[in-house]
UniProtKB/TrEMBL annotation:
<dbReference type="InterPro" id="IPR002293">
    <property type="entry name" value="AA/rel_permease1"/>
</dbReference>
<keyword id="KW-1133">Transmembrane helix</keyword>
<comment type="similarity">
    <text>Belongs to the amino acid-polyamine-organocation (APC) superfamily. Cationic amino acid transporter (CAT) (TC 2.A.3.3) family.</text>
</comment>
<feature type="transmembrane region" description="Helical">
    <location>
        <begin position="190"/>
        <end position="207"/>
    </location>
</feature>
<feature type="transmembrane region" description="Helical">
    <location>
        <begin position="318"/>
        <end position="346"/>
    </location>
</feature>
<keyword id="KW-1003">Cell membrane</keyword>
<feature type="transmembrane region" description="Helical">
    <location>
        <begin position="483"/>
        <end position="502"/>
    </location>
</feature>
<feature type="transmembrane region" description="Helical">
    <location>
        <begin position="367"/>
        <end position="388"/>
    </location>
</feature>
<keyword id="KW-0813">Transport</keyword>
<feature type="transmembrane region" description="Helical">
    <location>
        <begin position="545"/>
        <end position="564"/>
    </location>
</feature>
<feature type="transmembrane region" description="Helical">
    <location>
        <begin position="394"/>
        <end position="415"/>
    </location>
</feature>
<dbReference type="Pfam" id="PF13906">
    <property type="entry name" value="AA_permease_C"/>
</dbReference>
<feature type="transmembrane region" description="Helical">
    <location>
        <begin position="570"/>
        <end position="588"/>
    </location>
</feature>
<feature type="domain" description="Cationic amino acid transporter C-terminal">
    <location>
        <begin position="543"/>
        <end position="593"/>
    </location>
</feature>
<keyword id="KW-0325">Glycoprotein</keyword>
<protein>
    <recommendedName>
        <fullName>Cationic amino acid transporter C-terminal domain-containing protein</fullName>
    </recommendedName>
</protein>
<feature type="transmembrane region" description="Helical">
    <location>
        <begin position="93"/>
        <end position="114"/>
    </location>
</feature>
Length: 613
C-alpha cells in the first residue's frame, strides 16, 4: 500500500537549466498570446449564451451573472499566470500540478482539461452551426429533423453534420502550424472586437431602462419567465446563470498551454492572461447590458439574440454586421478551444500517463499531429451528437475543478521549502549563490529536528503567530500550510453545500443554515489566517498572485460553489468521464509513467545526496 501511494504522489522533476528546451516551434509573442486568449473566449458567450441565460435563468441580472463568472475567472487567471511564469512548459494546469502535488492529481486535472477542451470545441462548433442556421431561417435544422431525427434523451434532436465539418476544417488548420493558426486568429479576433464595439455603441441609442423593471403582468402573468424586475428568477437563478456564464470565460487558459511555443513565456504568459481577461470582461458586461436594455429578456431569441433584437428595433443593417462578427468570433473561439487540446494530450502522452504514440510531433509542421487529428475527430463527433446546453454544463464542471486545483497548487507552492526538485536533491536546501554546504546551513533551512517533540502550545504558536525572524519556510511551516489547505478545501465544500441547499429550500430551515454557514466561514477565515502568518518561499519569478493566501482561497470557494450549482445529470456524466479516465490511468499510466520508469519517485525531502538519475 505504501508503494502504491508513493506512485500516486510522485512528482515531475523540473530541470531549471533546460526548462525552455522543446521540440515545438517558439514563434508566438505577447500580442499573439493575448489575441489567442481573447479570440478563444470571446465567441459563443456573447452571440449565444448571453441570450439563453437572460431568457431562461437570470433575466437582466445576467449582467451580475457575467460579473460573478468574471471574478471567478480573473482569480483563476492570476493563479494560472503565476504558474505560467514558474513553469513555461506545454500542458497548462496538468504540468503545474504534476510538479507540485503529484501524479494522480495531475492526471485528474489533465483528464478534466481534455474534457474541457473537447466539449469547448464541440459546443462552439454547435453554436457556430446554430448561429449560421438561424441566419438562413433554420434550413439545416428543418432538413435534418425531417430526414434524420434522433429521439434520444440528452442528445441533439438531429445529427449536426455541419458542426462536424467545421471542426474537421479547423483541425486541419491547426495541424499545418502554430504560426499560421495564430495569424488566422489575430485577424478574426480584430474583426470580432470591432463588431462588439459597434453593437455596444449603436445599441446604446436604442436602450430602454424600463426593460430592467418589467412587471409580471407585462411578461404574461406566468411563472415560466419569473416574477419580472431586474432579478426575475431570484438570487438563485442569478447564481445558476453565473455557473453557466462561467462557460463564456473558459478559454483564456489556452494561453498557459503555449509554454513551449511562446518566445518569452515567463513574461508573455502572465501579461497575456491578465490583459485578455480584462478585455473579455468589458466586452461581456457591455454586451449583456445592451442586450437586456434593448429588448425584454423573456422575448429574446435563444439561438441568435443579437441580430433578432436589432431587427425588432428596426435596425436591420446591424444584422449583417453582427453576422460578420459572430462568424469571426465563433471561428476564433473554436480555434482557441481546439488549440490547447492536442497540447495537453501531447504533454500527458510524453509523460506516459496516456498512450505514448499521442506524443508524436511532426518534423515538417512541428505540431503534435496525431493528438491534433484524434482530438479534432472526438470533438467533431460530440458536436454532431450533443445539444449545446448539455455540452456547456458538462464542460463547466471540469473547468471549475481544474481551476480549483490550480489555486490549491499555488497555495502549496508558495509556502514550500523549495518549489521544484532538481537533479541532485540535496541542492533543494541550499540557497542560490550560497556556497556554504555545511550542516548548520542545512539545519537552518530544514528547521531544528530536535523540535519534533515540541508540545501542542508551541505548535499552536507557530500556527497563529508570525515569527519576524523566520524569512523562509521550514519543513514544519510547510506541513502546517498543507494541512490547513486540506482543511480549508473540506470546509469550503461543506459551506457551499449548505448555501446551495438553503437557496433551494422552501422550508423554515434557512436561519439554521445561516448560522451553520457563519460558523464554517469563521473556521475558514481562521485557517486562512494561519496560512498567512507562515513564511513564504522567496524564489524570484516574473509574476506572483497578490494578496496571498486570500485571493486563491476566494477563487477556490467561488469555483466549488459554482460546481454545486450544476445539475445532477451533469455530475452523472462527469462521473462517467472520470471512470473512463481512471481505467486508463490504473490500466496503463501508472505502469508507464516516465517518472516511475526513471526511478525518481523518492520523496523530495529524503536524504539523497548520492542519488544518481
Amino acid at each position: 500500500m505504501s508503494g502504491f501511494i508513493g506512485k500516486l504522489v510522485r512528482k515531475k522533476y523540473i530541470d531549471i537549466s533546460n526548462v525552455t528546451d522543446t521540440k515545438l516551434n517558439r514563434v508566438l509573442n505577447t500580442f499573439d498570446l493575448t489575441a489567442l486568449g481573447i479570440g478563444s473566449t470571446l465567441g459563443a458567450g456573447i452571440y449565444v449564451v448571453a441570450g439563453q441565460v437572460a431568457k431562461e435563468k437570470a433575466g437582466p441580472a445576467v449582467v451580475l451573472s457575467f460579473f460573478i463568472a468574471a471574478v471567478a475567472s480573473v482569480l483563476a487567471g492570476l493563479c494560472y499566470a503565476e504558474f505560467g511564469a514558474r513553469v513555461p512548459k506545454t500542458g497548462s494546469a496538468y504540468v503545474y500540478s504534476y510538479v507540485t502535488v503529484g501524479e494522480f492529481i495531475a492526471f485528474i486535472i489533465g483528464w478534466n482539461l481534455i474534457l474541457e477542451y473537447v466539449i469547448g470545441t464541440a459546443s462552439v462548433a454547435r453554436a457556430w452551426s446554430s448561429y449560421f442556421d438561424s441566419l438562413i431561417n433554420k434550413t439545416i435544422q428543418h432538413f435534418f429533423e425531417d430526414n434524420m431525427p434522433m429521439n434520444v434523451g440528452g442528445l441533439s434532436p438531429y445529427p449536426d453534420f455541419f458542426a462536424f465539418g467545421i471542426t474537421l476544417l479547423l483541425t486541419c488548420i491547426l495541424a499545418i502550424g502554430v504560426k499560421e493558426s495564430s495569424t488566422f486568429n489575430n485577424i478574426f479576433t480584430g474583426v470580432n472586437l470591432l463588431v462588439v464595439i459597434y453593437v455596444i455603441v449603436c445599441g446604446a441609442f436604442k436602450a430602454d431602462t424600463h426593460n430592467w423593471s418589467l412587471t409580471r403582468n407585462e411578461i404574461g402573468n406566468t411563472t415560466v419567465y419569473g416574477k419580472g424586475g431586474f432579478m426575475p428568477y431570484g438570487f438563485s437563478g442569478m447564481m445558476a446563470g453565473a455557473a453557466t456564464c462561467f462557460y463564456a470565460f473558459v478559454g483564456f487558459d489556452c494561453i498557459a498551454t503555449t509554454g513551449e511555443e511562446a518566445k518569452n513565456p515567463q513574461k508573455a504568459i502572465p501579461i497575456s492572461i491578465v490583459v485578455s481577461l480584462f478585455t473579455i470582461f468589458l466586452a461581456y458586461t457591455g454586451m449583456s447590458i445592451i442586450l437586456t436594455l434593448m429588448w425584454p429578456y423573456y422575448d429574446l431569441d435563444s439561438d441568435a439574440p443579437l441580430p433578432e433584437v436589432f431587427h425588432d428595433v428596426g435596425w436591420d443593417v446591424a444584422k449583417y454586421v453582427i453576422a460578420v462578427g459572430a462568424v469571426c468570433g465563433l471561428s476564433t473561439s473554436l480555434l482557441g478551444a481546439m488549440f490547447p487540446l492536442p497540447r495537453v494530450i501531447y504533454a500527458m502522452a510524453s509523460d506516459g500517463l496516456v498512450f505514448r504514440f499521442l506524443s508524436t510531433v511532426s518534423k515538417r509542421f512541428q505540431t503534435p499531429l496525431i493528438a491534433t487529428f484524434i482530438s479534432g475527430l472526438l470533438a467533431g463527433v460530440m458536436a454532431m451528437l450533443f445539444d449545446l446546453q448539455e455540452l456547456v454544463d458538462m464542460m463547466s464542471i471540469g473547468t471549475l475543478l481544474a481551476y480549483t486545483l490550480v489555486a490549491v497548487c499555488v497555495l502549496i507552492l508558495r509556502y514550500k521549502v523549495k518549489c521544484f526538485s532538481f537533479k541532485h536533491k540535496v541542492e533543494v536546501y541550499i540557497e542560490d549563490g550560497d556556497d556554504q554546504h555545511d550542516t548548520s546551513s542545512k539545519s537552518h533551512l530544514l528547521g531544528n529536528t530536535s523540535k519534533k517533540k515540541e508540545n501542542t502550545s508551541g505548535y499552536l504558536k507557530k500556527m497563529f503567530l508570525r515569527d519576524a525572524n523566520q524569512k523562509t519556510p521550514t519543513i514544519e511551516t510547510e506541513k502546517i500550510t498543507e494541512y490547513n489547505i486540506a482543511i480549508i478545501v473540506l470546509l469550503i465544500v461543506i459551506l457551499s453545500l449548505i448555501l446551495v441547499v438553503a437557496e433551494e429550500s422552501i422550508s423554515d430551515s434557512k436561519p439554521w443554515a445561516i448560522v451553520l454557514a457563519l460558523i464554517f466561514a469563521i473556521a475558514i477565515f481562521v485557517m486562512v489566517y494561519s496560512i498567512w502568518v507562515q513564511p513564504e518561499n522567496q524564489d524570484p519569478i516574473h509574476f506572483k498572485v497578490p494578496l496571498l493566501p486570500f485571493l486563491p482561497v476566494i477563487s477556490i470557494f467561488i469555483n466549488i460553489y459554482l460546481m454545486m450549482k450544476l445539475s445532477t445529470a451533469t455530475w452523472i456524466r462527469f462521473a462517467v468521464w472520470m471512470a473512463v479516465g481512471f481505467a486508463i490511468y490504473f490500466g496503463y499510466g501508472i505502469r508507464n509513467s516516465s517518472e516511475g520508469k526513471s526511478g525518481q519517485s523518492v520523496p523530495l525531502l529524503e536524504e539523497t545526496s548520492d542519488h544518481e538519475d
